[in-house]
Amino acid sequence: MRVVKKPRIADTGRGPLGRSVKGSNGPGPIGPGEAVGEAECKVCGMNQRPDVLPIVSSPIWSLLLACMLGLAVALTAFSKPASADAKLGAWIEGVWPDAEAAGVSRKTFDAAFKGFTPDLKLPDLDLPGRPSNDARGQAEFTRAPSEYLDRAYLIRLATTGKDLAAKHKATLEKIERELGVDRYSVLAIWGRETAFGHHKLPHDAINVVATQAYLGRRKDLFRIELIAALKMLESGVPRSLMRASWAGAMGLTQFMPSEYFKHAHDLDGDGKTDIWNSIPDALASAASQLKGKGWVAGQTWGYEVILTREADCGFEGPTQERPISEWAKLGLKRANGRPWTEAQLALSAYMMSPAGGYGPSFLVLENYKVIRRYNMSDLYAVFVGNLADRIAGGGDFVTPWGGTGPQKTSNIEEIQQRLMALGYDVEKIDGKVGSNTRKVIGLYERTNKLKVDCWPSDTVLDHIRKTAAR
Ligand code: CA
């Protein structure tokens, strides 16, 4: 059996918990679901190999050996799943004390694990035999910002968002009054997470978080989610409602089980917290989560700016945060041409260019960091912030997103490794184009008098290789 592998492209707008649903980015969505296929290869080695016994010439010996081999294969076939089952059973029993301590009954616990089989097709699993990049849930390519922040898709979502803002006016006003999060940002989370409820969630939440807790790369984190998911069952949430993304996020605004207990909010006051079917509950829950993560009422997320020679993209990142008045002294202007107001100049912001020199740059504020805490990704936060602006009636990017294609993960890793070896302040070797990576590339380009674009291009990689060879 031959499995043709397609190159996998990471949805860089997906946070560490893979919250956004596959396909929630409109055209050409490539999400976590693409990471399947390798599991089929796990049985490839069991194919019959008639050529392994060339030294046996006697037909009788051949027959005997063939029988012995057949027996061995049969034994293997039976013993392997049995030991795997025993291991799984022991692991499930190991979860019980934590579940019991969290108030889960044995009846709920047993029902939850009845017939449980780990879903080996999920991404981010730590499975022996999978290529190392798959074990880390990492794709061969990193998705281009221009694709994630697809303008046509944002416009479509904003159009729907405006209609929904009118339709749910009373609910959204109540959320603003009670939770202090503006209606546009709440709608933008709903739009980004499930395209306003249009995306169907493909997985059973218990299966997903149990698989991740048993075989995932981040077992401890998902064990907490598993206990919380069991508590949800115990509290009376029907399992049939608990449909989830590959990482266990549920409902209209994609709640992780642990967040459900912290932030789920019964806004319609019917005594039930229904993040699946009640739009008021789901939106208030999202707002409550944003509030819990530090939302600053009455403030926006950030401003698109035009960079200068004095303040290029090498100034990117939270470590270089400063008052906007300081940025203004370095020449940063708003991209829309409006002057900074006194109130804006007093705010603290950091610079962020998701596509380096090939797209818009932003000065981002506290609420940007809050959106990132909802889903740890720059592209996600820009998407949500920009969609909120568009629903509010503005928001188009002044600087277009350039044609930076998908980036090869291995190239980004090599750049990170080589820059670290050259003494640059590289935070981690992860093959991803985050703030820190863009910044250090910018600093390298500045030092070496290259065009400062803060982007992991082949040109800069070649240059770094030559520098390293010297
Ligand atoms: Ca309710």
Characterize this entry briefly.
This protein has 470 residues and is mainly α. It has 18 helices and ten strands.
Question: Would you give an account of this structure?
Answer:
With 470 residues, this protein is mostly helical. Among the domains are: 297-391, Lysozyme, CATH 1.10.530.10; 409-469. It contains 18 helices and ten strands. Residues 266, 268, 270, 272-274, 278, 281 line the site of calcium ion. Calcium ion (CA) binds next to loops.
List keywords for this structure.
Lysozyme; binds calcium ion; disordered N terminus; 3-stranded mixed beta sheet; 18 helices
Strand residue percentage: 5-15%
> Into which percent range does the helicity of residues fall?
40-55%
Uncertain regions spanning at least 5 consecutive residues: 1-7, 10-18, 21-63, 73-79, 132-137
Q: Number of helical segments?
A: 18
Global shape: globular
- Read across the widest sheet, the strand sequence of neighbours is 6-8-9-5-7
Topology at a glance:
Layout: E1 9-10, H1 59-101, H2 106-113, H3 132-135, E2 141-142, H4 145-148, H5 151-167, H6 169-179, H7 183-194, E3 203-204, H8 205-215, H9 219-234, E4 243-244, H10 257-263, H11 279-292, E5 302-306, E6 322-323, H12 324-329, E7 333-334, H13 342-345, E8 348-352, E9 361-364, H14 366-374, H15 378-391, E10 407-408, H16 409-421, H17 435-447, H18 458-469
Parallel strand pairs: 1-2
Antiparallel strand pairs: 2-10, 3-4, 5-7, 5-9, 6-8, 8-9
Helix pairs in contact: 5-7, 5-15, 6-11, 7-11, 7-15, 8-9, 9-10, 10-11, 14-15, 16-18
Bound molecules: calcium ion.
